[in-house]
## 1
Amino acid sequence: MDAEAYRQDALTAVEHADTATELDEARVRYLGRKSELKQALREVRDRETGMALNAAREAIEEALTARQAELERAELDRALTEDVVDVTLPGDELPLGSLHPITQVRRIVEDAFLGLGYEVRDDREVETVEYNFDKLAFAPTHPSRSHRDTFFFDDTHVLRTETSPSQIHSLEEREPPIYMVSLGRVYRRDAITATRYPIFHQFEGLAVDKGLTLADLKGTLLHVMRALYGPERRVRFRTHFFPFTEPSIEPDVSCGICGGAGCRTCKWSGWIEMGGAGMVDPRVYENVGLDPEEWTGFAFGCGLERAAQLRHDIPDIRVLWEGDLRALRQF
Ligand code: DAH
């Protein structure tokens, strides 16, 4: 074969290749395994022919590399001048979600307490009978201890029925002064209805320090209720009983729908029940090894579903658990 003529042909082909595909075709044709050159190289017998053929191969390889670089540069130039992107065109709109009403309310409560200098806690949902009941001074005969009211794993473990065990955990973890709020899920063996669900959320607060009074409790709850429901709200207390507080009270917040005049939501009383509260019972201090003569404090517990319901006027609590977007999109 005529190495020189072959080389000339190949270089012309490379020169005329205008696309990456054409260049590839030239490479296969002149340097590929079945190319004339490769055949000839396989059959070569004398040194001189070998050198001539190899020189041709090198020249063709160089030309291919150079042409490839040229084509790439040309393509880049073309893209830079022709592929113009109008960055002012509107993009594709992505569907935007929103926070679940329970999450919204939880964050409001957390913010309100952080603003008061409280620590936010998250405690275990599987709790021992000792922390869920005993250390909170529940009487041995208290109805909540029954298997009909509470989910038991075994004799000593339950799904916590309230966030109140957080009080014991924080009091055992360190010395007062303590200002904490604990938020999370609690569980009770209730049938599902418009107002009850076997899983729900509570927030539990505890303040233990020197010289705290019911007035401090009232001011604290007022602050949080106003964060949740607006600056016009008032708070009142009714006496009640809880094992771990003495005195125990139930705080009410004035109804925001009627402004306290009386309506369907507040059952014509002008007030809406918020949960439970009270001054920490001396037995609780004793159960965690603190001196009740030295320390004073208050505690409170409220449901988050209730708060979300009242904020958004949601008539049926099940909406908060069903995950139906048609309902949740409204909040
Ligand atoms: N744990 C009570 C409940 O679930 C609510 C409660 C009442 C919490 C009084 C408290 C409290 O911290 O002091 O019904």
Note: The longest helix spans residues 47-82.
## 2
Amino acid sequence: MAGEIRKVGVVGLGAMGSGIAQLCVEAGVETVGREVTAELGQKAHDRIAHFLTRKVEKGLLERPTRDAAVARLTLTTDVAELADCDLVIEAIVEELGPKQELFSELERVCRPGAVLATNTSALSVTEIASATSTPERVVGMHFFNPAPLMPLVEIVRAELSSDAAFETAYAFGERLGKHPIRCHDTPGFVVNRVLIPLLNDCVHVLDEARVTVEDLDAGMRHGAGWPMGPCELLDLVGLDVHVHASEALWEKLREPRMAAPPRLVAMANAGLLGRKTGQGFYSY
Ligand code: CAA
């Protein structure tokens, strides 16, 4: 039986967390967003308010509906303020240590029945859950970038997830207007298991076929029906995020195609991370 979700916490309000919080308030759910500083929280709030205003301007949303959605978001820097949430979705840095620390804290502060979900894209949900003494309430809810626009959410069953937590997360994904799919906790789950090596292949092709970035993107858009080219997509996801996810998959699967191409690693090390730094394969 899926539990009822009246209040949601979102921890980490970066690109993914703010997108997830936007979805929650648009779906009519009281949402508490937690960031490490009030400034970062405010930045996420402004970003959400901006995208909802754009929807009003484009006639996709009524102004009072937009205002009510924005008013459903409260901000905090204190994890303890998530105590009465029915579901908490974590979207902090993609590193096991900080995630485990957070889940152990969430277990202490949240009510016993609350479902604890991670938006990790390439780490093991089971390993994150192992930092708690109630791993049955931990699941994966993996959204895609940009979360408000991409229809998919992967609902990930870790080794010890309960049916109740899993189905609660699935039902909540539907309530957000997403297309949820059920899967098990394997490296990269479904989409990244396929997409990460594919994007790495695309970067290798840049050198092998001596094709330009623009032509490679045009090739995959016009020849394979991709909505955006692989280099545009890497710039959107963030080269640091992609390299990190590649490394996590390479560590688990030891397949050469999972390893980040040296060209990408060099770009990431140089701070050419894509849209968020204004320069990646393209300038923004
Ligand atoms: N959050 C909220 N709203 C946003 C947004 C965001 N991040 N980005 C854009 N919008 C809103 C804007 O208001 C925008 O309208 P305006 O520009 O008029 O303000 C509106 O959405 C429409 O945006 P676009 O015109 O850019 O939309 P589009 O039709 O060109 O589609 C797209 C954009 C959905 C991103 C499409 O190009 C696409 O599907 N690209 C592929 C993306 C993809 O593959 N994502 C998966 C990445 S992999 C991943 O996420 C996994 C992982 O773990 C790393």
Note: The longest helix spans residues 38-57.
